[in-house]
Amino acid sequence: xxxxxxxxxxxxxxxxxxxxxxxxxxxxxxxxxxxxxxxxxxxxxxxxxxxxxxxxxxxxxxxxxxxxxxxxxxxxxxxxxxxxxxxxxxxxxxxxxxxxxxxxxxxxxxxxxxxxxxxxxxxxxxxxxxxxxxxxxxxxxxxxxxxxxxxxxxxxxxxxxxxxxxxxxxxxxxxxxxxxxxxxxxxxxxxxxxxxxxxxxxxxxxxxxxxxxxxxxxxxxxxxxxxxxxxxxxxxxxxxxxxxxxxxxxxxxxxxxxxxxxxxxxxxxxxxxxxxxxxxxxxxxxxxxxxxxxxxxxxxxxxxxxxxxxxxxxxxxxxxxxxxxxxxxxxxxxxxxxxxxxxxxxxxxxxxxxxxxxxxxxxxxxxxxxxxxxxxxxxxxxxxxxxxxxxxxxxxxxxxxxxxxxxxxxxxxxxxxxxxxxxxxxxxxxxxxxxxxxxxxxxxxxxxxxxxxxxxxxxxxxxxxxxxxxxxxxxxxxxxxxxxxxxxxxxxxxxxxxxxxxxxxxxxxxxxxxxxxxxxxxxxxxxxxxxxxxxxxxxxxxxxxxxxxxxxxxxxxxxxxxxxxxxxxxxxxxxxxxxxxxxxxxxxxxxxxxxxxxxxxxxxxxxxxxxxxxxxxxxxxxxxxxxxxxxxxxxxxxxxxxxxxxxxxxxxxxxxxxxxxxxxxxxxxxx
Length: 671
Description:
The chain is α/β, with parallel strands linked by helices. It is 45% helix and 15% strand. It has helices at 33-41, 74-79, 84-101, 108-129, 132-142, 159-173, 189-201, 213-219, 238-273, 280-292, 359-366, 401-406, 417-423, 440-451, 470-482, 494-497, 519-537, 571-580, 595-634, 640-670, and strands at 2-6, 13-17, 22-26, 51-52, 59-62, 177-181, 205-209, 222-227, 230-234, 321-330, 333-343, 348-353, 373-378, 384-387, 458-462, 486-490, 503-508, 511-516. The strands form 4 sheets. The protein has a 6-stranded mixed beta sheet with strand order 5-6-7-3-8-9, with helices on both faces.
């Protein structure tokens, strides 16, 4: 659909975008991904080569940053997405008029006019058949807006929310090729999952730049790597590309080494027997053989590497942060209330939830930037390092990279600024670049350097991965893992949070809820809980037996999944179900499932059974852990730490019991 070929930044690059392609453009920051999108969109002209776009092909482009007008309400602004419908009608009328007037029926121009008329007819039929208002509402709600937001002026929303408005307009226009540059930077996890579903089911061709690995894995089916001015095209998603990329480099290296050995052996033979008359024929043969060898070259490997290590954390008190009934209100709007939790030294936790639910607001409360209600205590000797969401935008663009750091560095570190910049891939001439010419990822790296100039023991990172490439994100993730202080991360990046945090605080509905475990455990529990809410709204007869929740620490053995006593699907539940079931004479015979339906039912059943079994195994493990702690207490251990351990173990067990109950309910509904 689109042919691209350019020089300079990309040397002899050519590829084709086909209908239904979902392409991820990947590469390090500054490799040219955003430039590639701008060239395809027609916003920049390549130095050489060309971009070929077939007639009637529409291209939609969402940049990383844009200047937005604030003249309308949200819904009026989004309605502009359908302004092109009037242009379609005008084109249709004009084409219809030409068909009526022209008589050159056999000419190629007349045939092209008929083809164009057919396209316009189909496009109008499709556009006019859709319920525009319903589409607008569905798209805005999917992107996180409330119905009460629809009539609010766009100027009341932050830049991130206004970017969502532009994304909604773009999606509603349904372009043939959709170009998205970091679309997830301003979305929460739920909106990202909605966008994933939209792109995989509704969009046509998609080319996107994103550093959210889970997002591009779920959306794309093709990966184009930009590296050192070249591209490498793989018809797989990102995770498979990483494996294939490593295999390709390894194969090239093995072939190169084998060829180098062959060349060395041949040259040694020629050198050894060059002056022996009896070997003249063999020597000449080897010389010709050597000249014919097509030399194997290993693709140039990008060896630039970010060296990121946070300074050792000074020891703080045992509890760096204690919140008791903390709340924040703006006028009549209660952002959140009754936030009560304690973060212990060394913990790494995530704050998640929809945009506007209060994550960044709580961070501002911790930093003392805004007033709040309740009690918020920062512990003894706590030194906070804060990376704000707009940290990169706060840089002075008139300064160079070197001057930016030189202005804030004090003491001995000033003699090592060049080394520090080199560790962050700003070595050599890059340190003399103006901030205004840096990419989004380079600005984020520069802002991160400023964070490292002073040792801290509590890191608060508000969306630190926005604009960072995947390799840099991996390095940052490892650096946070190795950091021996306490970390609070506000992020929507599931892949980044996975394996990094051991506790999640969810913001939503004016509340802050604690969930022990990693981000995917939280999402799984949230998904199951949502399904359970759906079950409650459409009750089934068999659900009556499950309406009484079992106590995770109750006396009745029948409520323990790990024992041999009754489970929630035992005899008593079955008896209650049969008592409430209608008699055979009053019930029609159930429809017999097809083979395909039986197979699908079997898959769902096995999956649900495995979830229950996994939950039971986890409960057994946690009960053993809790018993070991109780044995230590019984043996006379009486420190504050042991009781903290006991409380934490109890919480984890309660969490596991909740997951087991929900999994059992899911299994019951399938069986």
